[in-house]
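REQUEST ID: PR-0412
SUBMITTED BY: lab tech R.K.
PRIORITY: routine
TASK: structure prediction, single protein chain
INPUT:
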Amino acid sequence: MKRKLRKSAALTALAAVLLAGGAALPRAAAAEPDTRIPILTYHDLTRDPENTDSMTITDERFRLDMEFLQEFGYTPLLPKDLVTIQQGNMEMPDKPVMVTFDDGYQSNYAIAYPILQQTGMKAVISVVAYNMESAEEETPSADDNMEDAALQEPAEPMEGVSIENPEDLSRSHLSWSEMREMVASGLVEIGSHTYNSHNPQYGGNGAPDGINGVMRRKNETFAQYSERMGDDLEQSIALIVENTGQAQVNYFAYPFGAYDSWMDQLLDKAGVAVSVWSNNGKSADIADGLRNLPRYGIKMEKSVAQLLQQTDTALPALATVSVNGKQSKLPAYNIGGNNYVRVRDVAVLLMDTENGFDVQWNSARNCVELTSQAAYKPIGTENKPLPKETRLVQSFTEPTVADGTTRMVASYQVDGYTYYKLRSLGELCGFQVAWDEAEQVVEVTA
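STATUS: complete
OUTPUT:
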């Protein structure tokens, strides 16, 4: 695969030379396309900050992670997209990412799916099909609900469960109907995490003799392994295809990350193109193929904003801003084609408008706190001229708190000041921002 990708890049470069009349091709134009992609691994989500562990993070952390990817222009890819790219029928986007879930917990639907819808992110969920069947059996039918309702007194609704938020707290795994809905949306792809090969008979990971996940048993022949694990894989795939409306299964996640080379042959036979390890902690390079791709394990201790912190060139500039028809100049850094302005400079600019806002620095939480429609008191550092030299800057990894709600927006800290896009501040604080292309002016209505 690596050779094919590089040959394609070389042919493209040669064509450019021929079209240019045989002129020498600059070194930069011959650069190979980047084939690396960070793959993020999640398991379960919770709304209770006291209920997190090595496999469970909060709904807020997941939302902030997805907002970071959205704000910084990441393109979410599914396993089927990686297959299409490998086949040469799709180009790798500039900033790709793949979001993955292992095990198929019900929170993937109740908590993660709405966040994917809000942010436009996508995810692949690898399910243990045996658990899905159990979850389906535990989900009562409409007839069962009607019979139960006739026999029981009306109950008070559980906190956090409503028609608008239909979270069934009586089970821990997804149902097939929930997977069908997510697959139909185009935001989710279902992969295999085996039918039932997490070794429940041995107590799961840490089994005796090192028999974990799909690893071969002691003295097991390839024929015996193929029958045992081949049947498990085929059963898993058949159930996913039958119950989700998905045409095929492209993705396999190794239980416990326990790899066995014999499994590769079974995956090839079953047509499963993409396989992943557990948390190897580096970006995958699909130029090396789609087998055994490494992933980043996401836990509460480290956010995606920290893991994928952006490093960019910042060019000093002056942004022309019109507030309710009155023009001003704001010191700005042009980063990635967008002007970023200091948050306190904007607060001063909007002080006498209906949408003025206050800015505070919360040193305990290491974050900016904004309060909309509140008086701002200048501290004397506003509108300070910027140094003339180009800077190398890094994105700010902490969320902004706006009216008490945490939000992850694109921002940078330079020399102790926090810089935002005006449009982002408008969304946080309630004023309108538009771009006048003809006049090259940012128009603010506040």
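NOTES: The longest helix spans residues 222-244.
REVIEWED BY: pending
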